[in-house]
Amino acid sequence: MVDLFAQTLPHARAIHADMRTLDLGERFDAILAWNSFFHLGQDDQRAMFPIFAAHAAPKAALMFTSGTSDGEAWGHAVSEQVYHASLDPEEYRALLIANGFKVLSFRPDDPDCQGHSIWLARFIA
């Protein structure tokens, strides 16, 4: 995927890294964890919120996808089994607030977005 990104946008910077240990030393106006964040275990998801905050510029937007309730599940992508985990939406809300984000929207199973559950928050710390 990084190679495809680089081919499509050759002048843009593409970084391949483990999000759980990410420390780029810079802040961004937008952070997107789309169809990636929910492949982490629950404890790893909890640990991501300080990482999101460390990379958020003032008023940065954070958007990520999650499940709709606390739990773990296995699904399929092409012919591979893939792991999914989610926290309870109220725990996501509490983690966002505790790490300096204001929740702008949570759309569970959004029919306008192929059934994804989408969070949008703004960094206000």
- Termini, distance in Å? 33 Å
Spatial order of strands in the largest sheet: 1-2-6-5
CATH architecture identity: 3-Layer(aba) Sandwich
| Estimated share of beta-strand residues | 35-45%
Number of helices: 3
Order of helices and strands: HEHEEEHEE
Largest sheet: 4 strands, mixed
Radius of gyration from the CA trace?
A: 15 Å
CATH superfamily: Vaccinia Virus protein VP39
Average pLDDT figure: 94
CATH fold-level assignment: Rossmann fold
Shape: globular
Quantity of strands, as a count: 6
Q: What structural category do the secondary elements indicate?
A: alpha+beta
CATH class: Alpha Beta
Number of domains: 1
Low-confidence stretches: none
Helix content: 10-25%
Tell me about this structure:
With 125 residues, the chain is α+β, with helices and mostly antiparallel strands. The protein is 24% helix and 39% strand. The termini are far apart. It contains three helices and six strands. The longest helix is centred in the middle third of the chain and has 13 residues. It has one domain: Rossmann fold (3-Layer(aba) Sandwich), CATH 3.40.50.150. The strands form two sheets. Strands 1-2-6-5 form a four-stranded mixed beta sheet. It has a two-stranded antiparallel ribbon with strand order 3-4.
SSE blueprint:
Elements: H1 2-8, E1 28-33, H2 42-54, E2 56-66, E3 71-77, E4 80-86, H3 89-98, E5 101-110, E6 116-123
Parallel strand pairs: 1-2
Antiparallel strand pairs: 2-6, 3-4, 5-6
Core attributes:
Rossmann fold, two-stranded antiparallel ribbon, 125 residues, 6 strands, alpha+beta, 4-stranded mixed sheet
